[in-house]
Every structure is written in structure tokens, then in C-alpha cells.
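Q: What would this complex look like in 3D?
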Amino acid sequence: MTRESKPPRAEQQFFDDPAIDRIMGAFMSLATEHYVLLDRFRALERELAKSGAINSAALDQEPDESERAESLADRNAFVEALMRPLLGEQDALGAPGKFSLKTTKSGA
Amino acid sequence: MNDRSFVAAQDFLLSAKTFWTTTLYGAVRDSYADKASSSQDEASASVEAVAEALEDTTLYQFYAWLERHLQRMKYAGRYGLVSYHDERRAAFLDSLDQIESEGRLLELNENLDLPAYYTGVDIHQHPGGVWSDALAGIVYERGARTTTPLLGAAGKDVHERFTDVALGDGAPKTVLDMGCGFGKSTQPFYRRLPDSRIEAVDLAAPCIKLAAGMAQKAQAKNVRFRQMNASNTDYASGSFDLVTSTMVLHELPPKTIGEFLDEAFRVLSPGGRMVNLDFYSLPDAFRRFIHHGHARRNNEPYMGPLAEMDLSALLKSKGFVDVEIVPFKESDDIDLEANESWRFPWTVIAATKPDGCTS
Ligand SMILES: C[S@@+](CC[C@H](N)C(=O)[O-])C[C@H]1O[C@@H](n2cnc3c(N)ncnc32)[C@H](O)[C@@H]1O
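A: Here is my prediction, written as C-alpha cells for the whole assembly.
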């Protein structure tokens, strides 16, 4: 017997707002991807250390002040990009706020 | 995806499942205990009352979401078992082709009608179920290694422990394993009883093919896997001293359970014993609530109905005697009383066909 193909069904909902259900899906996919990368990174480091290309102990050391200062601007830019959206401000001028077309009368 | 990424992703999901099994489940249980002690008697609560107390809490909603979606991600999506195996289809098909395809160990039946209850749902969120894809048995075997994260490699596994219970001190000459899957439940029987005849049936060709492959590797000579409906076999009445099933009853709708038990009764020899392992014994409303939720979230539509059946009465009405329904310890280090983590309500359901019974 073969399986009939069926149209997809609506996913189960657990949170009051289904948007949370869906964003959790994206979040867990990213978390998985992040772990896969971490794992690969560690494997890469191990291989490089084995071949003598890098010194793992040096990589693990606390960065000195000059290195931290050097990366500060980049760090701040990263945080800016991450957190700026929380303010809810426009990057390019346009109409503000929430809008709806529900009450627009056609032909008016 | 490469093998390393697949394993890393699956390991990550397993760690998440472990956190869910211990910490998150514990928090849900504690939060219910708090609410129950401040309102009514916990022991007399109903599933509905537990649902009232928990379903709208954020904690439970995360618990529920993770239960469904960690399992979804294990099987489906980019790092899921299905796509991993699909990318290696040719090699896996090749390994299946090495299996003696027809003969002593294996009997397939292409014309077998699969019941609607079976094809209508992708059981435990395995896309396509365990039957529709040639690789489904291999996918299922890989997935089953991590069904319950707390069951480590140490000590006897579930099937070995179940076999201890089913055999007791006896050495049945003939054994039938109903719904054998990829043969994990059959293995301990054909290994421990080299002089007995072991038969195993299942609806899923891709599973019994793998089962036969494993038996071939183990050089077993006393077992045969057959593609057959367990509730309607072609064995003569009175053929078996022992009939077993593990984790099959909960996949069957109540009507089919009746037919399955009738068939077990028929093929048993007088005085023969039937021993099933399944999910049944749920001593309080909280655990019933958790179990019914699990069933819904994990695509197990008949797990709930089984939990609500009066199996003891049903078995007696079928003519069985010496009915025994007892909680089962799935690992050496589990303490049924003190256990605080999520676990299946493992239960042994056993009964005997009366001596001198010829029907
Ligand atoms: C959860 S698996 C358990 C497999 C095996 N007993 C084990 O413990 O590993 C349930 C199995 O029951 C089989 N099954 C479901 N309904 C069946 C039926 N009516 N007859 C035979 N097998 C059935 C499924 O194909 C599946 O392989």
C-alpha cells in the first residue's frame, strides 16, 4: 500500500497567541543551528590544534585590554543592531503607528 | 547535511528533551501540587480539574509546546531523522538489499490491507509512519534509541526486562510476538530460547525487513518475521505457549484491541499465557492529564482510549483467567514511588487461556 498525500493540517496551538507558537519554532531552529555551529567550531579548532596551525591555549586566554578595546566598536554595533528594534522607531520616514484597511470604503 | 551536524543537532534535541523530562516536568508537577493543595484534594481531582489548573499557565504551555516540537524536530525538518536518511537513501536501500529478502527469516505480503486507523495518522510524529517508506524501519530504529532520554545504556534495557517477566522460570516451546516492529522485542526471545520456535508479525514491511536483517546478522535459526495483521493471523488455533506484545495495544483503537485479544486467545494453547507491555497504569489525575496530553501532542490517538479501558473486565469477558495488570519498572535504577521525572506509565498486562479450553 502507498500513502495518499494529504494537504497539510494546521499545527497544534499551545499559547494564547499562535504567533508565539510559530516564533518558538523559528527560535528552536536557530538554537539547533547555533549548537551545530558550536560543535563544528570546536571540531575545527581541535583539528587545527592537532596540525599545529593554532594554539588552543592561547585562544582560551582572557583577551588583554587592548584587544577588548579594539573590538569594542564592533561589539557596540552588534548590540545596537540587536536592540534598536525594541524602540519601535522608523529608519526611513513614513506614516507612523498601526493601520487598518478594514474601514476603507471601496469606491469612496 | 553531514553526519557530524546531524549528530550534533540530534544530541542538542536530546539534551533539550532531558531538560524537559526532568526540570520542566518537575516544575509543572510542583505548580500543580501548589494549586491542588490550596484548592481541593489532589487525590480526588479529575483530569478536567487538572486541566483547569494548568492549561492556561505559561509554564504548562511551554511544556506542551516543547513536548510536541522537540519530537517534530527529531523526525522532520533540516536535521530530522527523515531527511538525514533520505539524503543517504541509496546506501540504506543497499543495506536492506543485503537482507535475505524472502525465505526462512522473512515473509512479506504486498497485498496485505493496512487498516485505516493505521494509515490515517503518522504515529509518534514519524512523517509517513513506520510503514510507507522503504527506509521507515531504519528511521524508526534510529529514533527509538532515544525515545526516553533517561533510559541510559547501563543495565538491562526495556525489552530484556520485559522478556524476564514474560518468561519467568518457563521456557515456552512456541512464542508469538504480535506487532514486533523492527524486532527489538523479538530479539531477546530468539536469543534466549534457541530451541524454541519464535514467530513475529507486524503490518510494516520496512520494519520486519530490518528485523530479519538483524536476525540474519545474529545467525538466528529459530525466528521468522511475517507481514501480517496481528488481530487476524493465519496460525492454527492453539499454536503458541506464549503470546507477547510490547507497545502495540496503545496503537490500536478499542475495537481492534478486542479483536487482537480474541486472536491472542485463539492462537494460544490451553494453559498458555499472553503477556503485553503497554502504557496503562495511571494512579492519579495529574498523571492521566499528562498522559492524555502526551497522546494528543505525539500523534497517538488511541493511547488515551486504552488508558480509560477496563482491561481486566475485558480480558475476563474474552475467557482469560489469572489476569494480572502490574506496573513495570523500565530500568534497574527507577524507583516507582520516588520517581520525579516524566515517564511512560509502563504496565504489564498478562492473562492465561484456561487449561482444557479448546476454543
Ligand atoms: C511502538 S511499535 C512497537 C514495536 C516492537 N514491539 C517494540 O517494542 O519495539 C508498534 C508496532 O505495532 C505495529 N502494529 C500496529 N497495528 C498492528 C496490527 N494490527 N498488527 C500488527 N502490527 C501492528 C506497528 O507497525 C509497529 O511496528
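A: To summarize the key features: Residues 88 and 98 of chain A are 12 Å apart (CA to CA). The first helix of chain A runs from residue 18 to 51.
Q: Very helpful, thank you.
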